[in-house]
Amino acid sequence: MKKYGVNELRQMFLDFFESKGHLVMKSFSLVPHNDKSLLLINAGMAPLKPYFTGAEVPPRTRVATCQKCIRTGDIENIGKTARHGTFFEMLGNFSFGDYFKHEAIAWSWEFLTQVVGMDPDRLYPSVYLEDDEAFEIWNKEIGVPAERIFRFGKEDNFWEHGAGPCGPCSEIYYDRGEKYGCGKPGCTVGCECDRYIEIWNNVFTQFENDGEGHYETLKQKNIDTGMGLERLATVVQDVDSIFDIDTLEALRNHVCEFAKTQYKVSHEKDVSIRLITDHIRSATFMISDGIMPSNEGRGYVLRRLIRRAARHGRLLGIEGKFLAELSKTVIEGSKDGYPELDEKKEFIFKVLTQEEDKFNKTIDQGLGILSEMEAQMTKDGIKELSGKNAFTLYDTYGFPLDLTKEILEEKGYTIDEAGFKAEMEEQREKARKARGVTNYMGADATVYDEIAATVTSEFVGYDHLRHTSKVTVLTTETELTEALADGEKGTIFVEQTPFYATMGGQQGDTGVITTAEGKFVVEDTIKLLGGKIGHVGHMESGMIKAGDEVTLSVDEQKRKDTCKNHSATHLLQKALKEVLGSHVEQKGSLVTPDRLRFDFAHFQAMTPEEIERVEAIVNEEISRNLPVCTQVMKLEEAKKTGAMALFGEKYENDVRVVSMGDFSKELCGGTHVDNTGVITTFKIVSEAGIAAGVRRIEALTGKGVFAYYKEAEAELAEAAKVVKATPANLLEKLHHLMAELKAVQSENESLKSKLAKDALGDVMDQVTEVKGVKMLAAKMQDVDMNGLRELGDQLKEKLGSGIVVLASVKDGKVNLLAMATDDVMKKGAHAGNLIKGIAALVGGGGGGRPNMAQAGGKNPDGVDAALAKAKEIAESQIQ
């Protein structure tokens, strides 16, 4: 077997599957796209998930890739053994409902034996215990003897990840020979030693797992395969480990040069050599995909890798910065497969150097502090570093937790990780509270305060909505950065932009910023001190880095609609002055693509007639197709022309004067239509007061007006439908229904009055005397509070002088009413106090005036006691 190099093997694999009708796709970014389940791409199939799930249609049903991957699950073992690495390339061929087991197995065998030239007798397939179909294909079609085909259980040969698509696997092992074996009598496929090494895994996705352990056969069966390129090279080149294959050996040797040492002389040094070799490779590829060192997420993974590598450089005695130089070797060895590494090399070197500089400033001091902490622990006889001390090393000296852990483990110490997390949370809480901190101008302190004062932006969007410019500054939500990658939120600053920033009441533009490999969605555009214009949003795909030439494209339709609303605001202000008087003055405005809002000084609500006149004037000026002209002139000159200026507004010496024919002239820096006819139509939808002497109008233009009337029409049709009418005869129908309703209500009141009287019966014989005052206390059924009040008035009139107390039980609830005539009140009677005294007996509460009071309750059984109590209270009140 010829000892092919890594770059040769990659190309041989892709060429082979291209010959089998596969579309060869370039490696996806290490940053997952629209996949929050992953921090970093960790397998060839990970970026292809949408094709497997059916969420997206694949460009072809057969695809082959060599995908860059990162796995950090066993990061603490990197370097300690030669088996582990964080970065690897995964070769894969995929079928989305196209070919299945027969072709997948045959092609993997063909590639290994005929293309790479492996000895068939040294290859051993494995299948899932119950997968007789795969066993038969290996045995009958490929010709592998049954005794060389291994059946393994679910743990080894069945791929599933919770609910969803899953299926059996068939792996291919290669016998590397006795020199790599453990020498034990039973050594065979599945042994933990390095003799039989798995090189290819075919996953047959044929089932759907419901999460409860029930499996259904999928209509569309898929193939997902994976073969580690470095592992394949290890076998083909017949070397001990991935660190001995051609590309990694060159990198490993470069590390040794820096350290002035040799590989395989000292175990301790070998650990550091392997770790640096692996970590600089991962860091180089991560930075090339726009991942920046930070204290969160992917950025923290990168920071850990760089700082671990820097620390192990110290252990090897490497002086000064060395990571960028090593990165050159990574790029040289991998640029054949990943040309973007060479294109971005200066950027990669810059990021590595900046991060190494940061860590170098504190590492020696931090190591000294850690030594002191170790000495103190030895003195105190403890073996665990406190969470507080671990956090100090992290926060002050930039030591990631796992770096401190690794250093301490070498000396037999542990860390209080729970204590560290508690300290971290406390700091986050303090940071949340401190966000109200202000800068020297008294404004809230933001990430933008860190941008150099020399950075400025020029707005070039009056005449065009697309422009090419250079990125000057990038920020995340918390810090300045060199790049933004897929999914990250941030702000982009450029030298010149067509995006209008929120100013003068006009809302900022939205749109996209693009390069050949990145797309940033602009959600808002903001103006900052020093003439900076920030494009705030998120990376939808790829990456954008500082210094990139980018294309800025404003959302054209939204800008056009904003222009219509802004120009209509100018017409509105002039119309208001004509209708209401010259005292009208702008107090605020908001112009968006959907609507406009205008606040103005006026002392009273506008009448419907005034609103109608203003609307008519604006629409008249729109229909006149007035040209909208903008002139730049000196402020004093502009004022002489009669242009309206905002009271209290601070203007530059050079101002823009916007004229609409001979009707309106204002100082304005916003964007406008070329001709008032473009606005089409104008509609005021509301007028209201918002403060003393300030009114607010909300209005619509163009499409917004048509949408408003369409919605009104739909509501009218729905209303007509409810009353079984048409929009045309709705008014007539409503008049008719209102007349009917009035008659029914009148009849209802008469019936209620009659029912109340019937329920009470002849109660005048129940009148008693309390200290010479007539008192009527009676109960009835099914009379509501309105009915009780009406009855009470009638009975009080009949009594002429006295106290009336009524109780009614309706729907399981109690209504109480008490009334007293004027003459009895003079003797001390008080209906409100009486009701207060008896309401508790019916499980309620209430009160009222001396002449009339009412209450409600939930206990009908207490009515008789309440009426008896009423007489006692009346007796105590009357003097």
Write up this protein.
With about 900 residues, this protein is α+β, with helices and mostly antiparallel strands. Helix 3 packs across helix 4, helix 12 runs antiparallel to helix 13 and helix 13 packs across helix 15. The strands form seven sheets. Strands 1, 2, 3, 4, 5, 6, 7, 8 and 9 form a nine-stranded mixed β-sheet that branches. A six-stranded antiparallel barrel has the order 13-16-20-19-18-21. The termini are far apart. About 0% of the residues have low confidence. It has 24 helices and 34 strands.
Give the topology:
Elements: H1 6-19, E1 23-25, H2 49-53, E2 62-70, E3 87-96, H3 101-115, E4 123-128, H4 132-142, E5 150-152, H5 154-157, E6 158-159, E7 164-175, E8 196-209, E9 215-228, H6 229-236, H7 246-259, H8 267-288, H9 297-315, H10 323-334, H11 339-343, H12 345-380, E10 384-385, H13 387-397, H14 401-409, E11 414-415, H15 417-434, E12 458-459, E13 466-475, E14 480-481, E15 483-485, E16 489-494, E17 496-497, E18 511-514, E19 518-528, E20 532-545, E21 549-554, H16 556-580, E22 586-591, E23 596-601, H17 608-623, E24 628-634, H18 635-640, E25 654-660, E26 664-667, E27 682-691, E28 694-701, H19 702-722, H20 730-760, E29 768-770, E30 773-781, H21 785-799, E31 803-810, E32 813-820, H22 822-826, H23 831-839, E33 845-848, E34 852-857, H24 863-877
Parallel strand pairs: 1-2, 4-5, 10-11, 12-17, 30-31
Antiparallel strand pairs: 2-3, 3-9, 4-7, 6-7, 7-8, 8-9, 13-14, 13-16, 13-21, 15-20, 16-20, 18-19, 18-21, 19-20, 22-23, 23-28, 24-25, 25-26, 27-28, 29-30, 31-32, 32-34, 33-34
